[in-house]
Amino acid sequence: MLTRVGCLGILLAMGGWACGQGLTRKSGPWTLQQSGTTVSLRGVRSLGGGVAWASGAEGTVLRTEDGGYEWQSCALPEGADKLDFRGIWAWDADTAIVMSSGPGDQSRVYRTTDGCSHWSLVLADPDKQGFFDAMVFSGRQVGYLLGDPVDGAFPLFRTGDGGQTWTKIQSPGLTTDGLGIAAFAASNSALTADSRVWFVTGGQGGAFFYEGTSDCPRDGDGPADPKCLDHWTFHRQPLPMAGGSSSAGAFSVRAVWWDERVRAAVAVGGDFAKPDLSEGTCAWTPDGKTWTASEKPPRGYRSAVTWEADLDAWIAVGTDGSDVSWDGGRHWKPLDDSHWNALSLPFAVGQDGKIGKITLDGLHK
Fold first, then answer.
1. Domain map (residue ranges) of the chain
2. Could you tell me the pTM of the whole model?
3. Which region among 170-174, 238-242, 262-266 has the lowest average model confidence (pLDDT)?
4. What phi and psi values does residue 227 have, to the nearest 5 degrees?
C-alpha cells in the first residue's frame, strides 16, 4: 500500500508527478501516457471516440482505441525498420496511411486497411533528390503530399482515391525562384488543405506562404475532371517570421474554414537551432491574405499548431513547451515546458516516445 508519506516522497523525488490510482505523470495540462517506445515521435492523428494513431523513427506506428489508456505497436511495413515516419493520417481504427521522410526512396507512403496488421507501399519518392515533408487529407478520398524542392520547384502530389494512387500537380507557381527555401518535416503540419492548398516554408531565403487553387471550372454540382484537378494556380507571399538560416522559418500552418472562406489562420515556427528565441515564432491572418506577427509570440520555436473549436483557442507545441492563444494568435500564454514535436488534440507527441493528452477543462483565459 502506498502511504501518504510515501506518495509525498515520490512527488518530491519526481517533481511534477501526481498520486492517484497508481502514478500519473503530468506536464502542465498534459497527462503523460505510456507509449511503449523510446523513439522520437513526430506524427499523430486523433479521430475522436478514443481512436488515435502516432508515428515516428525506426518504422514505428502506434494505435489506440481507448483514448490512450493503451497504445499498441503496429506491425512494421516490410523493409521499413529504418524509416522515419514523420506523418500519419487515419480515418478509423482500421484505415490509415503513413509517410516517411528521407532522401530519395526513403521517402515513402504506406497504407493499411486492417488495423495495421498489414501495409501496402503506395508511393516512393521518384526523385533521388526528393524528400517528403508533409501529408494532409481534405476528405476521405482527396489528399496532398508536399516534398522539398527538386530542380527549383516544390513537388506536390494529389490523391483522389484515399491514398491508393498519387499524381504530381503541375503549376508554375510552385517554383522557388532561387530563393533557397524548403519545407520542414518536423510535425506533418507544414501543409493544410480544404477548398484550397496552403503550405509554409523557411530557409536562407526567409519564411513564405504558398496558396494554391484548382484551375477546374465549377459550373454545376457534378465532380470536376480528374485531369483538371491536377493543374493548380499557386501564389507566394513572405511571412513576418524568422528566416535567414537553414534552421529557421515557418514550420506549421492551420486554418479555420467557413463556407470555403478562411475565418482565421495561424502559422508557427522560429529557429529550431535556437529554440529559446521567441521573435518570429508566430504570424496570424484573418483572411489568408494579410499576415501579421504576434504581439506576444510563443516563448520559443514551435513546430506545430492547431485550433481547438470547443475553446475557440489556438494551441502550439515545440521542443521547449506548449502555449495557448485566445485571440487568434495575437498573444500567447505558456502551458508547459516539456519537449513536443506534433499534435492532434487532445494528443501531442515528442522525443523518447513521449505522448501527452491534454485536459481542456483546466484551460481558461
1. 38-362
2. 0.90
3. 262-266
4. -65, -40
